[in-house]
Amino acid sequence: MRIVSMIWMMVLAAAAAPAGAVSAKPADVCKIEKSLFKSNVQQEGNVCNVHLKRSDLNVSLMGRHLSPELMDLALSATFEHTDPQGAKGAVTGEFALLEDEVNPVIDALRKGKINISAVHNHWMQQEPEVLYLHFQAEGDLASLSHTVHHAMEAVKHQGTVH
Question: What is the 3-state secondary structure (H, E, C) of 115-148?
C-alpha cells in the first residue's frame, strides 16, 4: 500500500507541474518595441515582429493596381531577444521603399550600426519602382529598436504608413 501511495503522489506531482506551467502567461518581451511601434508589434515567444503596411504607395504591377499585401509593400523588422534580461538580441528586416527613400533609410540604419544586406527589386513592370532593403544586426535591443524606428521615420511618407 505504501508503494502505491508513493506512486500516486509522484503521478499527481508530475501532472500538476505542467498544468501550472502551461497556464502561465508568457513574459511581455516586446516592451521596447511596443513603446516605439505601438500596436504594430506581434509577439511570438522571444520574437517581436513589427509590420507597417505601406498603404501610402499607389503601385501597379504589369499595368494593374494590386494590394499592398500581395506585393509585400511594408516596413517590417523582427527582433529576437537572446538573453534572459532582454537587453541583447538581433534584428532582421525588410523595407519596401521608393528610390528616393533608400539613401535616407540606409543612412539612418548605418548610424545605428545596422548592416545593410541587400537592396533589390522583387517585381518587373512595376510603377513606380519599389526597392526592397534588407538589414541585420546584433547588439543592444534598445539601441537596435531606436535605430529601426529612426529609419522608419526617414521614409518620406511615414505619416501615412499604417
Answer: EEEEEECCCCCEECCEEEEEEEEEEEHHHHHHHH
pTM of the model as a whole: 0.79
Contact assessment for residue 65 and residue 73, using Cβ atoms and an 8 Å cutoff: no
12-39 per-position pLDDT tens digit: 444 444 444 443 445 788 999 999 999 8
pLDDT (0 to 100) of residue 120: 97
Dist. CA 58–CA 160, nearest whole Å: 12
In angstroms, the Cα distances linking 29 to 25, 117, 134 are: 12, 26, 24
Residues 52, 148: Cα–Cα separation, whole Å: 12
Q: Which of 131, 153, 145, 161 is nearest to 53 (CA)?
A: 161
Q: Give the Cα separation of 61 and 115 in Å (integer).
A: 30
